[in-house]
Task: inverse folding
């Protein structure tokens, strides 16, 4: 079973902010690719189990706030006995321009506290991920990631979310190496 995790912060005040690009990517996947809704609460998150790309897939949006995302991921991984090789995490990245995505098979959290917490909780950095570019903060990082993008940034980020969904679909159907070669 594959686990697809989108990172963000719960609550309407954080909806569609730069830091919630992982949530937005999961929502896009569910609406445009899967045709299901995330409709269950559990594992300190919201989740759905659905057929996708010929596989049984779990979709998870942790509701622990970003910095503790790993506790939610760890609970669902332990319950369903998911292999770390079958996890992919989608999240925002300030090191990429808006509109760009980058797939990686492993590595540090790169300063992203949600990804860092997942690595800490699972005890490995060998976790597949799709980083969604939001651009550099021109001022306070916290203010920047917690505001909604506008104008050209918003348009480019929406394109990146669609690309991220396509990349996840490619991964599920053809493997991560194929997706990396196609989308990086």
Result:
């Amino acid at each position: 079973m594959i686990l697809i995790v989108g990172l963000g912060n719960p609550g309407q005040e954080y909806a569609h902010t730069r830091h919630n690009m992982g949530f937005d990517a999961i929502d896009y996947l569910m609406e445009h690719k899967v045709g299901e809704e995330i409709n269950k609460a559990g594992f300190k998150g919201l989740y759905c189990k659905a057929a996708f790309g010929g596989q049984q897939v779990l979709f998870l949006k942790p509701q622990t706030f970003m910095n503790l995302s790993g506790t939610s991921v760890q609970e669902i991984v332990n319950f369903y006995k998911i292999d770390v090789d079958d996890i992919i995490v989608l999240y925002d990245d300030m090191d990429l321009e808006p509109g760009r995505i980058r797939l990686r098979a492993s590595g540090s959290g790169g300063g992203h506290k949600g990804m860092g917490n997942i690595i800490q909780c699972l005890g490995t950095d060998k976790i597949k991920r799709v980083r969604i570019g939001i651009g550099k903060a021109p001022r306070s990082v916290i203010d920047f990631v917690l505001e909604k993008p506008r104008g050209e940034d918003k348009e480019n980020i929406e394109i990146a979310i669609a690309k991220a969904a396509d990349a996840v679909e490619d991964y599920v159907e053809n493997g991560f190496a194929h997706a990396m070669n196609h989308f990086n």
